[in-house]
Design goal:
The chain contains ten helices and twelve strands. It has 317 residues and is of the alpha+beta class. Helix 2 runs parallel beside helix 9 and helix 8 packs antiparallel against helix 9. The termini are far apart. About 4% of the residues have low confidence.
Length: 317
């Protein structure tokens, strides 16, 4: 018998359009602040209000000390009935009054007024500060910042070497005019690295998100992004199921709340907001935020090097 029913405050647009009115749900994974369930192959997340929103989120009005791990029972009949999700014998979540959350429309952003050098300096300082707590040290590879690929605050040599090789070869192919091979090399990052969302995936989410925002302004980079998206889609099942969901959404320009807000601050050149949302992004996951920010930084550098006339402020790297 259900003892307590919580209300959902927000529901992501993707999960809102995917959930059935009634039917079974499958357990995927659980953490203290989140519970991942799936319906017909689409993974969605019940989460505490403090967790950032994504198109797959259902934010639940639970107390701050609530722990999802305490309520998940092996073999429980997870299900949805009449706008109510049952995830343990004692607790349910009503979603009928939740506010629909939609990600920022990246195509509506204009990055042409961005001051690339000043922006990169701010973001680099943020990442360098993160090193104090994680041991992460970004490696600048002509264009690309390498994501953090290890455990316990140390970079894993195997993944680092492979990542460095792929990014180095992607840059070389681009400089030779072979955009298709460059995109193929970048897509090899899919599934690369440990974790629920591998570092290579998070990097690509940040990288493609920035290019998504500038594609309407540059035909050549727009075509490159199309090729890259096609290559990533061919490899999408080589990563974890939950990461493939987030990666597929990002390829449609649907990104999480902190990524969208950071890109909006970047387009508006609001450095106070840029600093605020950089901190918020860097706090995401064990290394996901760092890896995603490395992808955004790499996107900025990629555009600046390959189209120096794009940004209104002409600054040398």
């Amino acid at each position: 018998m259900v003892v307590e029913t919580f209300e959902a405050s927000y529901i992501g647009d993707w999960v809102f359009g995917s959930l059935p009115e009634k039917g079974p749900l499958s357990f995927h994974s659980v953490f203290s602040s989140t519970l991942n369930l799936s319906s017909a192959g689409t993974i969605f997340t019940l989460q505490k209000p403090s967790v950032f929103l994504t198109p797959l989120s259902i934010a639940v009005k639970v107390p701050e000390n609530f722990n999802f791990r305490d309520f998940c029972t092996p073999g429980f009949n997870y299900r949805i009935e009449i706008n109510t999700i049952y995830f343990c014998p004692r607790v349910s979540v009503k979603i009928d009054s939740a506010t629909l959350w939609k990600p920022l429309d990246l195509t509506g952003l204009d990055f042409r007024q961005t001051e690339p050098v000043k922006t990169l300096q701010v973001l680099h300082r943020k990442i360098s500060a993160k090193k104090i707590n994680t041991g992460f040290a970004p490696v600048l590879n002509k264009v690309f910042y390498l994501p953090w690929m290890g455990s316990g605050g140390q970079k894993d040599d195997f993944f680092s070497m492979k990542l460095n090789f792929l990014l180095e070869s992607a840059y070389k192919e681009w400089t030779k005019g072979n955009a298709a091979q460059s995109a193929k090399n970048l897509s090899s990052l899919v599934g690369l690295g440990p974790g629920l969302t591998p570092s290579g995936d998070d990097f690509l989410i940040g990288f493609t998100a920035f290019l998504y925002g500038i594609k309407k302004e540059n035909r050549y980079l727009e075509n490159f992004l199309k090729v890259l998206i096609g290559e990533i889609k061919q490899r999408i099942y080589s990563t974890s199921d939950i990461s493939s969901n987030f990666l597929m959404l990002s390829l449609e320009g649907k990104v999480s709340e902190p990524v969208g807000c950071l890109l909006l601050a970047l387009a508006e050149q609001n450095f106070d907001k840029l600093s605020e949302y950089s901190d918020r992004l860097l706090s995401c996951g064990h290394s996901s935020g760092v890896d995603t920010l490395c992808g955004i930084i790499s996107g900025i550098r990629f555009v600046q090097i390959n189209d120096p006339s794009f940004f209104a402020t002409k600054e040398a790297l």
